[in-house]
Amino acid sequence: MTFQPTDVAVVLGTRPEIIKLASVIRALGDRARVVHTGQHWDDAMAGRFFEDLGIGQPDVRLTGMSGVGRAEQISAGIAELAAHFAAHPVAAVVVQGDTNSTSAGAQAANYLGVPVVHVEAGLRSFDRGMPEEINRLVVGAIADMHCAATEQAVANLLDENLPAERIALTGNTVVEATREAIARAESAERFAVEPGAKILATIHRPENTDDPAALERVLEALIESRSNVVLAAHPRTVAAAERFGLTEMMHLLDVRTGLGHADFLALAQQADLLVSDSGGVQEETTVLQKPLLVVRRSTERPESIAAGFARLVPPSEDLLAAIRSALGQSWAHLRETPSPYGDGFAGWKIAQIAIRLGDARVE
């Protein structure tokens, strides 16, 4: 690729970022310069997603953020990104969500005077024990334009005294990403599970995988539910189970690894209940119109709970009892409940904001 100073750099580093920024990248067209930080890079977590989503491979791939701790990731990411932007200027930088790549991308751009567009801005858990919350607050202080998914996110930003003209209510790109993935989902037969109550689970957050007791709690509840449980296993979870001697518990579940986004959603469509600590799944469940138990201390997505799709089950609550209760309920009303995350045109709206901001700078 020939780099142009009118390019809009889209900085990403994890699977959810690839999924959620795909529609923005497509809408940017030739203006997009996709920069992968390498925060997560293997075929299971990143490689295949670019091709699956029809956006090709990244234009730039960094190396310093792979396989190191959080502080090293962010510092290395800032250094590499700053060096790239200094050598190959860009008109604007787009970052998404709350990952270490998001923080590094926003900081590197800001230090060089490049305007920053924050996608999925304004999420707040008000739990500073979450690394993601710190990343959200850092980027919130840096971004030039805040693309908020919901009215609640807008209110959070206004409460932090951000000027209204720097906030745009765009909806969440997860809506179009989920709809597109469902449309291209492979035959459900390939992913068929045994008849009976079906649970699809995915666990990967540090609060559940860095603590052996927390991970054991979740695995034990899934096993004791005596339902047909499919665990979409994140590499972090597999590694944690091995480290804590919980591999035998994993073997009692139907573990699937390396699932693509469409593959995961094909399984989710068959499930009666989802159990997860994922932020993205809290949004996707509103498009799938499925119930979800959120296995976390807190959530930055209260809209999913308020709309009736999700319920928070913190460590102080009995997860097994929550699973049994959810499986015993009728969730037919969710089929008539709209997603609180927008109309499916967020990617286009965000791309236009980034282009306008970048053009104003270049001029």
Give the helices and strands, then pairings:
Elements: E1 8-12, H1 15-28, E2 32-36, H2 43-52, E3 60-61, H3 70-87, E4 92-96, H4 100-111, E5 116-121, H5 131-142, E6 145-148, H6 151-159, E7 167-169, H7 174-184, E8 198-202, H8 206-209, H9 212-224, E9 228-233, H10 235-243, H11 247-251, E10 254-257, H12 261-270, E11 273-276, H13 279-288, E12 292-294, H14 302-306, E13 310-312, H15 319-327, H16 346-362
Parallel strand pairs: 1-2, 1-4, 2-3, 4-5, 5-6, 6-7, 8-9, 8-11, 9-10, 11-12, 12-13
Helix pairs in contact: 1-2, 1-16, 3-4, 4-5, 7-12, 7-13, 9-15
3D architecture notes:
Residues 32-353 form the UDP-N-acetylglucosamine 2-epimerase domain. This is UDP-N-acetylglucosamine 2-epimerase (Non-hydrolyzing). Belongs to the UDP-N-acetylglucosamine 2-epimerase family. It comes from Leucobacter iarius. The chain is an alpha/beta fold. It folds into two domains: 8-173 and 344-362, Rossmann fold (3-Layer(aba) Sandwich); 187-336, Rossmann fold (3-Layer(aba) Sandwich), CATH 3.40.50.2000. Helix content is 46%, strand content 15%. It contains 16 helices and 13 strands. The strands form two sheets. A seven-stranded parallel sheet has the order 3-2-1-4-5-6-7, sandwiched between helices. It has a six-stranded parallel sheet with strand order 10-9-8-11-12-13, sandwiched between helices. Helix 1 (15-28) crosses helix 16 (346-362). It starts with 7 loop residues before the first strand and ends with a helix. The mean pLDDT is 92.
